[in-house]
Amino acid sequence: MVLLYSHAHSSAPSYPALAGYILIRLSWPSSPRLRYAPLPYPLLLILLNHLRSFHVSVHFGSAPDPAQPAFPAPAPSPAMPPSTSMRARHGHPPGPISLPPLAPPPLPPIPPAAVGPHSLFSTSLARDAMMAYAYYLYDSPGPGRTPLGLTPVPIVHSPPEDESPDIIYRNRLLPLLLALREIHPNHIPILLLLACTYYALGDLETSLAISYQILAINANYVEAMSNIGTTMKALGRIDKAYEWWWKALKIRPTYWDALDNVLGMTFTLAHDTPDDARRVAYYRQALAVCQYVQQRVLDANGRLLITLQPNEIPRLQRTVFTSGTLYATLGPDNLEHAILEYTRAIEVVIRPPMPLAEGEQYTFRDMLLAACAAGHIMCTDSNQSGVPEISGIFQGDFTARLGDPTVDFLYVVRASGEQLLHALLHAGGGVLPTPLLLPEQVSRLPELLFSRSNGAFPAVCTRGSTCEVKRPADNVRKQTNGMTSTILLTLAKRFQDNVLGGMALPGTNGTLRISTSVIILLYYLALAWTPAPSTYNNLGIVLSGITDGRMGADGELLNGLHLARTYYTAGLQMDPKHPHLLTNLGSLLKDQDVGRPWDAVEYYKRATRVNPNLPEAVCGLVNSLSSICDWRGRGAVAYEVGVDDAGFIISPGPHPQTGWITNMVNVTDTQIAQGYMASVGAPALQTALHECLRALATAYGRQLTATEVARWQARFERLARSGQDRAERRINEAGFLIRFIDWVQPRMQRQWYVRAYGKTLEVDKAVATSEANFHGIFLKPTLPKTLQPPPVPSVLPFHTFTYPLTPRVTRLIPHRSALRISYSAFAQPWLPKHVYRPPRPPIGGKINLGYISNDVNRDCLRSNHPLSHLMQSVFGMHDRNRFNVYLYTTSPWDGTAYRPRIASTVENCVDVSSWSLNTIIDHIMQHEIHIRELEVINLGGYTKGARNDVFAARPCPIQMQLMGYAGTLGAGWCDYLVCDPIACPLDTSATERWRAQTAVPTGSGRPEDEVPLDMDADIDPETDSDEWVYCEKFMYMPVHHKQSFRGDENLTVEERAQVAADTLWLDEERRRADTRKQLFPDLPQDVIIFANFNQVSPTPIACCCTHKVTHAHIIGSGQLYKNADVLISDSRLCTSPSQIDPVRALTSASSLPRPGGVGIFLVWLRILRKVPRSILWLLRFPGAGEEHLLRTAKMWAGDEVAARIRFTDVAKKDWHIFRARVADLFLDTAECNAHTIAADVLWTAASMVNATGFGDQMTVHSAEEYENRAVELAKSVRYVPHHEPSGAVLPRGEGELLSLRRNIYLNRDQMPLFDTERWTRNLEKGLLEAWRRWVEGTMYELSDEWKACEGDEKKSGCIWIRDDEPVEVTQVA
């Protein structure tokens, strides 16, 4: 294609001062480029007058203004094709552009030298080209009309066939250029295009020769230098290419094409090299180039030193942004430099064009404060609560004038000095307050912040003669908007990764720190200038996690969840098939409030239709369908009862049946395998080995033996040899390095303690700290800079309880999450290089004990959390002569009475819900809180809102998990799990499995190249073994601990002891009869009520299907995500939250799963069929599960049985406990046993196993026993009339089941299950023992101290707590 331009030109004085430009499209199939080639205008006229038959597409237009190019600059590429004009420095057009046609100027006289039979243009080429132009003139509209009825083109004429670019260049373009060079041998533009043509034809040497000829004419012609560099690169002479590009940059630092070439080549070399050191060197080289350019264009404060054209501003901005990215790539130590560069890149575009007044030197801080203030002003404008603190800062009616073109808001913000910042920080409690903006309000931010330029960034605007601001060309504006949004999003991501670190923003003197509100503001700004579905998605993710709220214009509450949904929806309007938006909106609906999984299902299905392998969508769909008991299409894993697409049962078999549950299993297996792909490289491993050996010697307090050195060297050698088969060999290189730091830190802390205080359990008075003496000794190993964040599976650790996953996968999912948490903690720039100082010995043996919990008020039932009930008395029952108690709450107070009630029982209750990780740890250190000295107890685990990052940073030497999360954390930063041997069998712990392995004869060991990647006795979680689950050691409690209330009888323990047993039981039967009538008024008294209060979701157990059951619990009740009793199977652990499990097979104690095994829901239906006068009482939790359960019951058992399933709504806590007495028999789920509700129903005398004294009567060993025992107990019930003094008749029950109920009810004050004070005393025994083992060093297997000891810890790493008080349970006939 040929584009003709008219343009004044002074290089041909012998002709009229006119010249033309031919814009040649270099038609490379893969990457078309456009270049300008100036040509003397008279020659063009001669050429066009002789056109004959060659058809050429011709357009007219003005020549490109060097200051305003017609085409945007391209993105950086490894190497640009050779430049053909000085205007190349202003950017290259990405493709052909059609310009408005203009009438050509009149033809001047033809120079005599150019005509005649032997003229330069007497060739057929010139003839054909000029004839095509003649046709164009004939057909172009002129003053009159084109003559009609004539035939200007011969009938026999046919257009030429399409020819290849090579033929066009060689046979048409090249002859023209050679002819032109004969006329103008030293005309550089002709030579420049000629060199490019030879390059395109593959004649690189000739291209080089012509470029050198240009430099002979003009030694500083940078376009020729850049072309030489590109040609050198094509010749494989990389060093020479770099030299020529660098030479061009030194002459003209704003030659952006040369910069792109240098950076592109350097990045390619860095990407291709396997040598980590060389890769880092390439990145440093690229950074030096960027810095060179910046130093010659910007001063130290980011002000322009030279005048740039508007289209050059985004190129400069991209250069500064690239510097920041390179800093970030070079490792976490450079993160602050990276953030500084990112903010400077923003400042490049927010400052007005030169000349610049001092008050216009806007900074990133000014933009952020302006956005925050404008956001709150918009909220106030909508009759909503804004920030009153800022109202007095702006004068007069400024709020009403916001957005006025005469108002420069950034100027006003900058002029306010520190006033606005302090006012906003005061309103936000030390951080910027979050303006909760709707999408339409976000879109107004550009015009509010930059009203004078109508929302365009000032730097790309121009000043008029009266200093008015003129908007840039659309392509420049769009390019700047896109680049700025990219930088803002990058900052937001960096801040998200470090938000818990509390890093101060550049230019704020430490007063403005990174917070969630800052991240939200960055997303607002990015979205305001460049709306994109992915930005809506990321903003929604952040908003979904905040608790702030305000009233909307319609009077409805706008909080983080509502806004997140709004932004997800807005993003889907741009891209209805965006899989991540669909998935996240589904997750939001599933998790908000009490959850709406029934609404989430459709979004997950839409996401999986777009991307069937999107892990989050697959896992979310499984969880949502399970939550509402819609089992259709579930499929089945091997040896499991399944459900087909229609909802009918699939019998167990050896092969899986495809469905959504098998899709989830496959996705999880794939993600786990992908986690093995990361590698840090051999040099980094060698460095890590040296640091490892140094840290080990420090932790042991002595030099390592040759055997120890060889053992650790062998582990690192195995890592180095793993190659590409890491997945097959189960070698997680990144995981090993992170695990080692987790493993060695507490051992180094203990060695510090011993060197400072000796093996001292307690002291009589305070001793001086040793902080200043050992900082340089107890240095932690560092993670390699090349280590990337470990990937995390999409299945949440808590959900591993509920899916048919093998024990190994059940272990690896939380382990991979733990690795990611540790990585994030270790990457914090403020983290000290040494381990945290160990505690001083407790004075008088009084231990300061800390609890960290997110559940000190909230509840999935909207009122209060079960953990609050379970633990509310424990905190206050600790022996204050031996313990000081500190409670850290990571969730804000919800306004209920539970938080104040609990806080009143402890010495220190600290709300850290808004604190950064750095602030929490600083508080611990600065206040000498003994939580750091001794034990810190995690009550959250992997539940929502848990702050495991506090534990990963290791501020204290002993850390443990209690109550909130029933599974393994899979983390090296959790030492103990408080549990019981029923829930957690001894051999399911890694250290106990290690003891079993060491007893195996040495002849059965592994080959040398398969040396295990264990940390002494801590087995590598990545191992193939399905024999264990827990990475923690166990602290075994003698009985379970529960909380209950006494509101049913209104009697104290002492008062109750004085009442006769018959009277107590008679009163209980009266309460039960009255409550039964209230709940089920249509139900006759002799109808047996079976009950289960679990969430009605079908969640398979977290174990493989080849496990055999050694015992199962027939009776009980549970609540969502709480686990007390578990199913032990084949020496492996199977745990799950207490939920209805409709399809998992129960098996006998003496065999593997059988094809005849039936699911628990099937068992319940069979029980109902065998007990005709019975009902099954379930909760609407969630309500959408009711219709699916009833439909399934009809399909599996018929209408009559299905009609006897009754649902009631979820109730408040007190009424929930009180009404539980109505149930005759609670049917527990085998794999998902009860927890909080179990204690509640036992308190009301419903039967259940364990800690009651009557377990033998309530324990079964197979599905058949489960079913038969339930039927047997139900049929034992009979009622006899009892005549009350009032004349009323009270049916009183008799039989084995009623006898059980009576015994449990009358003995509840003697049962350890309900003795909280006793439970607390036992817990304290375990805490003191854990402290002793740590101080003496016997806590760590294979340590010198452990080898020398003879205590219980030599036999088992677990702590067995013995209950010394007798249990007095009375059998009542």
Automatic annotation (TrEMBL):
InterPro entries: OGT/SEC/SPY_C, TPR-like_helical_dom_sf, TPR_rpt. Its EC number is 2.4.1.255. GO terms for molecular function: protein O-acetylglucosaminyltransferase activity. Gene3D superfamilies: 3.40.50.11380, Glycogen Phosphorylase B, Tetratricopeptide repeat domain. Residues 791-989, 1162-1323 form the O-GlcNAc transferase C-terminal domain. Residues 69-98, 998-1018 are annotated as: Disordered. Residues 69-81 have a biased composition (Pro residues). It holds the Pfam family Glyco_transf_41. It comes from the Eukaryota. Keywords: Glycosyltransferase, Repeat, TPR repeat, Transferase. GO terms for biological process: protein O-linked glycosylation. SUPFAM superfamilies: TPR-like. TPR repeats lie at residues 222-255. Pathway: Protein modification; protein glycosylation. The keyword Glycosyltransferase applies. Belongs to the glycosyltransferase 41 family. O-GlcNAc transferase subfamily. This is protein O-GlcNAc transferase.
